[in-house]
Amino acid sequence: MKSFQSLLLALALLGSSAAAFGVSTRAMTGSSFVISQRPRAAVAQQQPQQQRNSKSHLQMGSMAKFGIFSPAVYGAKIALGQEKLNKIRGKAISLHSQAIGQFCEWAGAYHLRTRLIKKAKTNGDVLGFLV
């Protein structure tokens, strides 16, 4: 299992590093890594920050999107029932959040943990896991 995780991590890092050194289509040529590291003060001035209320903008519920895994989730809901499915879903989300936290600790980027968990929730919605 460890070797599979190591292989998966190596492939992810290889894919992300290869994309970082691609040629940009913007006015300046060069790697997208260099462009993304420039200060963005001008962009921040152009786009005013939206005020957020106390509720998270990532709440799902009945507003979840229909994605590629939605039919499997509906099948599981029929086969297992809503209560059992929610228990399994909660356990999977908990394990995934722990894995994200361990990865952030290992990478020395624990400050990104919350953002990565929110991104995982958004991706789960897009893929149809939250229907």
Overview of the molecule:
The protein is an all-alpha fold and 131 residues long. The chain has a domain at 62-131. Helix content is 63%, strand content 0%. The protein contains six helices and no strands. It has helices spanning 2-20, 32-36, 41-46, 70-80, 82-107, 113-127. It is globular, with a radius of gyration of 19 Å. It starts with a helix and ends with a helix. The model is unreliable at 17-35 (pLDDT under 50).
Characteristics of this structure?
single chain, 131 residues, mainly alpha, 6 helices, 0% strand, globular
Largest sheet: none
Residue windows where pLDDT falls under 50 for at least 5 positions: 17-35
What structural class do you assign from the helix and strand content? mainly alpha
Instruction: State the helical fraction.
Output: 55-70%
Could you report the average pLDDT, rounded to the nearest whole number?
75
Radius of gyration: 19 Å
Number of helices: 6
What is the overall shape?
A: globular
Report strand %. under 5%
Count of extended strands: 0
N-to-C SSE string, H for helix and E for strand: HHHHHH
User: Distance N terminus to C terminus?
Assistant: 30 Å
Offer a quick outline of the entry.
The protein has 131 residues and is an all-alpha fold. The protein has helices at residues 2-20, 32-36, 41-46, 70-80, 82-107, 113-127. It has a domain at 62-131.
What is the secondary structure topology, with strand pairs?
Blueprint: H1 2-20, H2 32-36, H3 41-46, H4 70-80, H5 82-107, H6 113-127
